[in-house]
Design goal:
By secondary structure, the chain is mainly β. It has helices at about 1-20, 40, and strands spanning about 45-50, 60, 65-70, 75, 85-90, 95-100, 100-110, 115-120, 135-140, 140-145, 150-155, 160, 170-175, 175-180, 185-190, 195-200, 210-215, 220-225, 230, 235. The longest helix is centred in the N-terminal third of the chain and has 21 residues, at about 1-20.
């Protein structure tokens, strides 16, 4: 009887332990985070953007240049003009970056070292004054670089410049449609390299749109100070 008692107690403990680790109502999953101090990555104290390539390497847009983390060590790659990198995007075998009056991509050479290739020469230098690129996204078969003043579409080794009506705050892709949010003139969509007005409403005047997403076949518009809105069938409601 004593032997059976001990085994019953042991079985009960195992069952309780199993419930604790499998039941979502009892045990909650805690995701793993790791913080990296400035002394570890040894670059500027501000990081503006982050991306990851297919190999798992992490790239950060840093005050001092392009930060690369391979899971063990950090590496810093500086632009030729050593300006701050504001945006970064890993796409296929290239790492696109945007800076002050400069944008382009990094690509590995035959020795595996990252080499920078500027695309700024594809744009008229007069149109490039004081431009700073804060967002880079892929759209269909093009790469989109966004500053506060203009949109630059890179495709087939050519750059097409699209000028908005007012300051651009964000760009979002929803169901293969590109939405461009401006500060004073509402939200536009990009068609054939031109901007067409899509959402014009008093709510959108002097409004900083943070993001646009799909929600139950409607557009979910998030702002920084005015809350969130749903857009459906030509109507915008809080």
């Amino acid at each position: 009887m004593k032997y059976l008692k001990i085994n019953y107690l042991f079985s009960s403990v195992l069952l309780l332990f199993g419930l604790l680790i499998t039941s979502p109502s009892i045990a909650q999953y805690s995701p793993y985070f790791e913080n990296y101090a400035l002394s570890e990555y040894n670059a500027g104290n501000q990081n503006w953007g982050i991306t990851k390539d297919d190999d798992g390497k992490v790239y950060a847009a840093n005050n001092n240049g392009l930060l690369v983390y391979d899971g063990i060590k950090w590496y810093l790659h500086q632009l030729p003009n050593k300006t701050t990198i504001r945006s970064v995007l890993a796409h296929k075998d290239r790492i696109y970056t945007g800076s002050y009056q400069e944008f382009g991509y990094w690509k590995k050479n035959s020795k595996g070292a990252l080499v920078y290739h500027s695309l700024s020469h594809l744009v008229d230098s007069k149109e490039f004054l004081n431009e700073e690129f804060w967002q880079i996204i892929t759209y269909k078969d093009a790469i989109i670089f966004r500053s506060f003043w203009d949109i630059y579409i890179y495709k087939d080794n050519k750059v097409t410049q699209v000028k908005p009506y007012s300051t651009i705050l964000s760009i979002d892709i929803v169901n293969d449609v590109m939405y461009v949010s401006s500060l004073k003139d509402g939200i536009f969509i990009l068609k054939n390299d031109t901007l067409e007005k899509h959402i014009v409403d008093d709510y959108m005047v002097d409004t900083k749109v943070v993001s646009i997403n799909d929600y139950q076949n409607k557009l979910f518009v998030s702002t920084s100070l005015k809350g969130c809105f749903l857009y459906d069938s030509g109507k915008l409601r809080p």
